[in-house]
Amino acid sequence: MDLKLPSPVPLRIQAYNILKEAIISGVLKENEMITERRAQEQFHISRTPFREAIQTLEAEGWMYTIPYKGTYVSPITAKEIEDIFELRLILETSVVRKVQSEIDNQSLNRLEALVTLMETEMAKKNIYQFIILDRDFHRVLYELANNDRLLTISEQISDMMRRIGVKALHSLPRWQDVIKEHRKIIEGLREGRAEEAIIDHLKKTEEEVKKTYEE
Fold first, then answer.
1. Residue 46: helix, strand or coil by DSSP?
2. Where are the alpha helices (DSSP H) in 60-193?
3. Residue 3 has pLDDT above 60, yes or no
4. What is the CATH number of domain 11-73?
5. What is the DSSP string of 9-38?
6. Which of 101, 161, 95 lies closest to 133, judged by CA?
7. Fewer Cβ close by (within 10 Å): the C or N end of the chain?
8. Alpha-carbon distance 6 to 11, whole Å?
9. HTH gntR-type domain: from which residue to which, for each copy (predicted)?
10. What does the alpha-carbon distance between residue 135 and residue 178 come to, in Å, rounded to a whole number?
11. Where in the chain is the domain with CATH 1.10.10.10?
12. For residue 2, what pLDDT band results from cuts at 50, 70 and 90?
């Protein structure tokens, strides 16, 4: 048996992951400048990995650079929000339509367990972990659809949805509503009518996100 130690993660990848998570979680705000010095002091990222990470983040749309001024965090545009939710509405209604006809108790219990964990994190007011669990809830739905292409698309928009989620969950009542809406989705899956529940959940989430941008 050929046993090897796992390869260390390259510094540029570490820097990329740290900076992207800082953007998603709101540590780095929209249109906020990020400099080499700040990256070193706040995130312990050295010059070369920082520059390499910035190139990738710019290419993916997370950051932008103004010549002779600096590098900034890209804002989320109204168009991006509309596009993401339009895509999710198409995908997730199809997913639950397929899943509800064949879902078993084990899968329903898996979804219930995630909602219970969300309640625990809500009590702690841990928004970051709450959003990760919300992502996991929807990811399970995609997994149950047993369609690799759908799952790949969901992963591609997952990070942006977590960033948007921080905006949507700007107040504790919304956290409570998300939990209620997730339970309705589970109930809908159990009874074969989950499409209405998922549409309601996505529409309300989109409304909350847009509301924060209007304030």
1. coil
2. 78-99, 105-124, 127-144, 148-168, 172-191
3. no
4. 1.10.10.10
5. PPHHHHHHHHHHHHHHHTSSPTT-EE-HHH
6. 161
7. N
8. 15
9. 9-76
10. 12
11. 11-73
12. very low
Q: Give the SS3 label for residue 183.
A: helix
Where along the chain do the CATH 1.20.120.530 domains lie?
A: 78-214
CB 91 within 8 A of CB 152: no
Which has the closest alpha carbon to 117: 137, 139, 97?
137
Structure tokens that stand for 108 in this block: 């329903």
Residues 85 and 91: their CA atoms lie apart, in Å, by 10
Could you read off the pLDDT of 55-110 as tens digits, one per residue? 999 999 999 999 999 999 999 988 999 999 999 999 999 999 999 999 999 999 99
Nearest to 205 by CA among 95, 131, 128: 131
CB distance 181 to 197 below 8 Å: yes
Bridge partners (DSSP) listed for residue 64 = 72
Q: Which DSSP letter does residue 207 get? A: H
CATH of 78-214, one of 1.25.40.10, 1.10.3720.10, 1.10.238.10, 1.20.120.530: 1.20.120.530
Helix or strand run (H / E) with residue 206: helix 194-214
Instruction: Evaluate if pTM is beyond 0.85.
Output: no
